[in-house]
Amino acid sequence: MDNLSDIAVFVQVVDSGSFTAAADRLSLSKSVVSKYVTRLEDQLGVRLFNRTTRRLSLTEAGTILYTRSRRGLEEIEAAEAEISQLQETPRGKLKINAPMSFGILIIAPLMAEFTSRYPELSIDVRFEDRKVDLVEEGVDLAIRVAELPDSSLIARRLGPCRHVVCASPDYLAKHGTPRTPEDLRTHNALTFHYQDSPSEWRFMSPEGKYVSVPVSGSIQMNNSLALRETVLCGAGIMLTPTFIVGADIKSGRLQKVLSDYRPYEVSIYAIYPERRHLSPKVQAFVEFMKEKLSDPPFWD
To answer: Which helix (H) or strand (E) holds 66?
Structure first.
């Protein structure tokens, strides 16, 4: 609206009761205020004021414009105030996307503390393993457990994600315990569909050399928690993040193997569309997760 400033001056004249008083409030000269109103009248093709030497009154057109414009300007002022508050205190809705297993095991248990810390925030978390387009789907922030490709998105590293090869004690008793990565060729390797190179597992040897070995198995799944349940039942051996099976290894339900060989490590990132004018709600969640996912993370 090219004439919004003209309308704002016109409303101020009405509220002030005169051109002179409006000029004082706006820190403008009376002639400049008069020029704004005259320009608005020329643009609309109507007279807005009945002017006399003693009295200033609105025409019918002026009354309509004032009534509507006053309401609109109040909405603009309210919006400006609300936006200003958003830049100071985390509030409003925060839409988050995160991987299914990481979201269920790690993010969900932290939500009570986060919302207690920021009571003016409402959280909409979508757990799914597909890679969403943050801008297209209106997502404020996403969590990624991966090595990220080059992207226009901003990434903030939250912590490491280590992996482990494990199986149930029953499976190892029946099929033997692998001692080197090469031994995995003879095992039923259960794989995660979204894992990078699921049919090839990569390790760092005790001598510091990279080792990769092709694996195969009877089951592939698109959910790490479901795959974990299958391995717990003795169906095979798996390579998975430690946050998935850390408690199971500690309790003895699963047994870690190939301890001398370190599986590849990725990182946990918070990603968001841009750094400029980063909203307090996104900043608050990023800092909160950074605080919780220290190095080493609590599940390790």
So the answer is: helix 60-86
